[in-house]
Amino acid sequence: MEANNLLQNYKRTNKTLIKKYLEFFFSMLLSVVFLQFTTVADTIIVGKLLGTAPMSGIKVAMPIINILVVLGTLIGVGSGTITSIMLGQRKNKEASASFTISIIFSIVAGIVVAAIFVPLANQIGSLIASNEEISGFTATYIRIVMAGGFFFILASVLGMMLRSDGFAKLSMFVLITGGGMNVVFDLIFMKVLNMGVDGSAYATILGMFLACLVGTLYFFSKNHSLRFINIFKKENKPLVKQLLKPIFKTGISSSLRVLFTNAALLVLNYLIGKRIGVFGIAILTVCSNIQLILSSIFTAGGQAMTPLCGVLYGEKDSTGIKLLLQFVFIFVMAIVIVLTIVAEIISPQLFSLFSVADPDGLGAFYLRIYLIGIIPIAINYMMIYYYSTIQKQKIALVMTFCENIIFYLPLGIGLLYPLNMLGVTIAFVVSEALSIAVMVLFAKLDSKKHNLTSVLLLPKENTDLLYEASILADSTNLVKISEEIQNILKSKNIDESNAYKTALAIEEMLNNTINLERNKKRKNIAFDVLVYSSGKTVTISLRDNGIANNPTLDGNNVEEENRFDSIVVLNKIAKNIKYNRVIELNHTIIEL
Predict the structure, then answer these.
(1) Taking the CA of residue 127 as centre, how many other CA atoms within 13 Å lie in the half-sphere pointing to its CB?
(2) pTM for the full predicted model
């Protein structure tokens, strides 16, 4: 936007978005940290109660088990992002169709996985385990968990879909239930009932079953906007065809990232076991588990950003996306850097936590090198989420493929034999750094090809956008921004009558919101105000983080708590008013 700095005192900020992002982030962080922690705790409990060999056997099985994560990510990220974009475009039927598709595909995927992996568990265990000492534990864990894989996939998908509809807290409870009950059942089945590795596997499945049960509470909420629709009806089949490709294209990069990471771990675990033995696998287990804990920060950061970014992308709000990303990266990376430094300092204690003997301190030394790669991997994670959301899947796919298949796996194998575990840790750091370089290169090529902004790949300018700003809703700001908008629109050759009507419409909307929030005793409600012009039509976009506030409702026919009575003038001067509440933000479009 070209702004006249002499006239415009209010600027566009992230005030409206950040409050909602932080709510999403901390809900997501708590759930991801808890889920990641319980995965790590699962390993710790097995190590403490059963010993190093069963722990290593389960860890070797994890790349196979994570096929469930791959499928959950493919379906959940894909459908969740497309649902957010559809809600941002006010296409509620399409959003519900995306939701329905995600549930159906979760069920089908779980059945297919069980049919393939359960009968072949013994053969797979023997194939991927580097010695007979751990292959039996690996096979047992694969057989039981894959049999209940449907619950694993569905819990993951439900968590992502609920977040897309603004139910961040319920999404958090779904994941916390799955992880927390896993730990509880671990202790019951292994310590009390002495069920061994079988108990750990059953605990995982029962935890995810209860998580799915909690997710069904969504359907009892009167405010949920996503509903099941019959996608097999003739009139809905074109809708399914329209959505299937975008859903899988959007989710493919994040899911392949999980797949490629686990493929690399599968190969490296095998080769390390052959060359170094169980101790080598134990070192990689500690490194990958610490990475898992730290990755909860940037995973939460990226996933919390996705629904907001998807809605903004659907609304074609490039400035909003830039402001959101600027905050996200500063906020998330600051946390990641601090925690990585702490992990570097306490590396020896981390090995003790996992009951892995490290008398000469080599394991802690390797971990310190490995941790250097956490900062670049955080950048890669969040940028893959971002590119998938703005439908730049090719760059996300290139990053994913290069990171693990082109760089990490060949480097890990090549450096393992001359340098042992030192080579594997160096390979991890170098591969993540090279992936960032690839991202920058491909983003620059794409930006030149499509005339977009550098790495973010957004349109350079919107010539229809005349004004954008953010304000806190109070009476002083209301009067000042109304005057400012009117003056700026006149300076941009907008008809004086239209400029006046625009300022009046914004003033009336903000004033009613202030009154409503005052009645609810709420403060610090932030507004984004955008004004566009196309031909003779002036369009106002207003977004706020207050309570539900629909100006299109008739005050005489709705409950008192939803009344919006004082828009008489607005209704007379507006050609059209559209309202939507997405991810718990009000968004009103007014055409004059």
Answers:
(1) 10
(2) 0.76
